[in-house]
Amino acid sequence: MSLPRGTREGPAFSGIFSGTFLSLVLAAALGLLGARAVGLRNPFASRAEPRSVQPGGELDARERATIALFQAASPAVVYIQASNLRPYRGEALPLEVPEGSGSGFVWDEAGHVVTNLHVVRGGSLFRVRFQDQAAFRAELVGAAPDYDLAVLEVDAPRERLRPLPLGQSRDLQVGQHSFAIGYPFGGEQTLTTGVVSGLDRSIQSQSGLRIYGVIQTDAAINPGNSGGPLLDGSGRLIGVTTAIATPTGANTGVGFAVPVDTVNRIVPRILAEGTVERAVLGIGVAEDLYASDESLHGAVVGSVYPGGPAARAGLIGLGETRAGEAVLGDLIVGIDDQEIRRAADLFQALEVYKAGDQVRVRLDRPHRGGRRVEEVVVRLETLR
Fold it and tell me: How many CB atoms lie under 10 A from the CB of residue 74?
C-alpha cells in the first residue's frame, strides 16, 4: 500500500522527539542569554573583583601641620547648650527647654570657658560638652554685651581643662592662614580652614554698639560656630568667631571674629567685675577718610553728644558748608600716652579704662584758618 503524497515514513514518535529536542535547545540558549544579562548567574562569566587600591603618597608638610594643629586644639573646644526650666501643662515638674547653643573654648585651668553672649543669652542652665561627648554643668560668670562675650565656669575634672595658647591680633596680616573649630548646626566638632581676608572691620554688638578691629576670615563659619576659636597657623587663639555676613543664614565666605587683643582685655574684667560696660567720650566717630582726604591722621570727631563728657570738654565735631561739604573739626590724635591714628586705635585705647576715669585727650583742631594740637582732660562715662 502506498503512502499519501507528502507523508514521510518513519517511527511514530520521531515528530515528538524532534519538537522536544528543539525546545530544550531553545530553552538552554535563552538561559545562557539570561545568565549573561545578569552577569553573576552566568557560570561561564569571570568572577567580579574589587578594584585594586593604589598606594598613596605621604602627607605634605602643610597637611601634617593642619592635622597636628587640630589634634592639639580640639580638646579645648566645647559645645555649649543654654536652657531654662519652664512649667508645662499637666506636668508636676518643669521641663528643661533649650534657649540657645553654640561653641566655646577653655580659657584657663580654673574651668573658665569663653563664648559669645548671644550663645548663652536667655539661659539659666548651661551644659558644656567636650569633644569626646563628656558633658558637665556650668554656671554663667558674667558677660560684656558691648563685645558679645561671655564667660562660663564648667564643673569638669582638671585634666580636661587645656587652655588654648594666646596669639596677638594687632600684628595680623591679610593672607595669613586661619582655622576655625566649632560645632556647626549643633553637630560634631569640625575644622575649617581659610585665610585672614580682612582686618579692622566693625560689626554690631549685642548692646547695639559697634565692635571695632574685627577680623574677617573666609574659613567656613556657620550657625553653631559662634563662640568658637579662630586660630593662626601656630594654633594660637587670634579671635572668637561671632558672626557671618549672609542673606540666607549659611556660610558665604565672609565670617567675623572678635580680635584676641580685645578678648584678652575684656575677659579678665568679666572675671573680676561680672560685667563690662564700655567707657565712652560721648562722641560719634566719623570715617577715617575725612582725615585722610586732607592728609591728616587721627580719629575724626563726627558728632558730640549734648551733655556728655566731650561736650563739657569743648570738643568740636564735623561741620558743613553752605554747599553741603563737610568741614573737619577735631581729630583725636592721642589718649594719655597712646598715639591715635585712626578710629580703631581710639576704641582699643579706651577699652582699658572704666567709667569715671580721667584721660588726657590730644586734639588736632581748627585754629585761625589752620590747625594746632591742644590737650584737654575728659572724665569718661558709660553710655546712657
Answer: 16
What's 279-382's CATH class? mainly beta
**Residue numbers annotated as active site:** 118, 148, 226
Q: Assign domain 177-273 to a CATH class.
A: mainly beta
Q: Please classify residue 210 by burial: count the beta carbons closer than 10 Å to its beta carbon, then call 0-12 exposed, 13-18 middle and 19+ buried.
A: middle
Q: Is 356 left (phi over 0), alpha (psi -120 to 50) or beta?
A: left
> At the topology level of CATH, where does 70-160 sit?
Thrombin, subunit H (2.40.10)
Burial class (CB in 10 A: 0-12, 13-18, 19+), 29: exposed
For residue 5, the model assigns a pLDDT of: 45
Beta carbons of 178 and 128 less than 8 angstroms apart: no
C-alpha cell at 19: 519538537
Residues 6+ apart with CB under 8 A from 221: 180, 182, 184, 192, 241, 244, 251, 255
DSSP secondary structure code for residue 185 in this structure: G
Higher model confidence: residue 43 or residue 228?
Answer: 228
Q: Is the pLDDT of residue 314 over 90?
A: yes
The residue count for the chain = 384
**End-to-end Cα spacing for the chain:** 134
Range name among 115-119, 145-149, 345-349 with the lowest pLDDT average:
345-349
Domain locations in the chain as residue ranges = 70-160, 177-273, 279-382
Which residues, 6 or more positions from 115, have their beta carbon under 8 angstroms from its beta carbon?
80, 102, 103, 104, 105, 149, 150, 151, 152, 226, 227, 240
- Distance, CA of 130 to CA of 115 (rounded, Å): 14
Distance between CA 152 and CA 227 in Å, rounded? 12
- The owner of cell 568572577 is 47
- Give yes or no for residue 25 having a pLDDT over 90: no
**Beta-bridge partners for 365:** 372
Rounded to 5 degrees, φ, ψ at 87 are: -65, 145
